[in-house]
Amino acid sequence: MTHNVVQELTLTPSCVLSLLNSKVVAPKWLTEVIHQGTGGNPSSGLEQHFELPDTSFFFPVVSTALPTTLSSINVWNTGKSRRGVLDDYRFIIFTCASERVEDFQSVVSLSGGGYEFFPVDSGRVRLHRRLSADKDKRKKVIVVDDEVKTSVAPDTWNELIDEAKSYVSSPPSFSFLPLNDLKRFELTFCSRERVLETVVVGEPSVLSHNLGLHQFFWYIPIRGLIYTRSSTMDG
Description:
Layout: E1 3-5, E2 8-9, H1 13-21, E3 23-25, H2 27-37, H3 45-49, E4 61-62, H4 73-76, E5 89-95, H5 102-110, E6 114-119, H6 124-132, E7 139-144, H7 146-149, H8 154-165, H9 179-182, E8 187-191, H10 192-201, H11 205-208, E9 217-222, E10 225-230
Parallel strand pairs: 1-3, 2-4, 5-6, 5-7, 7-8
Antiparallel strand pairs: 9-10
């Protein structure tokens, strides 16, 4: 696909994937293609030079539902590559059985991030085995959202969060490990929207910034690690 026609720009996996994969254009661009191709303008580039209309004149509008940090067209139409913006991260994406995550998976992959899925109904024991066996040296991020949270019982969800938080507790529990091994236990949380926002803006700092738009946790740096405490998910 070379062009993707969208009515407006939204913070959804399919829309962000289009930014990575193709040129995003408004419906008027397709109208212009048809107009030129049917002879509506005999001197047009399509008939004379086999050139499609310039997409820069047909960029979609930004959804009014987006927060102010994403409301400017310049944020979306930067002209710079978004590939590689997630190179330093590996994502453990919490999922539930009823959802489709192919587009979100592709966004992470094309942006350079590593990823794997963890079904939340698998339970705490399986999550423990997965995290304790992780050898990837990139920063670990558990990706969560409200739909996944509500797909399991509150007790199950709290057990998963407690297990994940055990890998970022205070440093004394890891005091017998050298500093380079401590980094293996650096683990943070974010929403899927934060990942998408990072790709749109094209800056890794958006992902790590602690005053973002979609807060699930607050962060306190402790000797190079990050201690997390849920503000909305522990109850």
